[in-house]
Write the structure tokens for this entry.
Amino acid sequence: MSYYDQNYGHWENMDEPGMVEFYHHVQKNSVMKKCSICGDMVKIQRHYDKCNDCCDKIESGWSY
């Protein structure tokens, strides 16, 4: 099974104890918000303002 969200991107090591439960905890505590960069509505944690897709681009050297 593949796990992905706009908080952390692709989740790895999901066979480690507690990882699936942590993933579900993150999903439960995420809300629909507008990304401050691309403007898309994404499900992210309350204290985030950027989606993972935009953060990956920034880390790869893109500028907005």
Q: What stands out?
A: The chain has a mean pLDDT of 94. The CA atoms of residues 37 and 50 lie 6 Å apart.
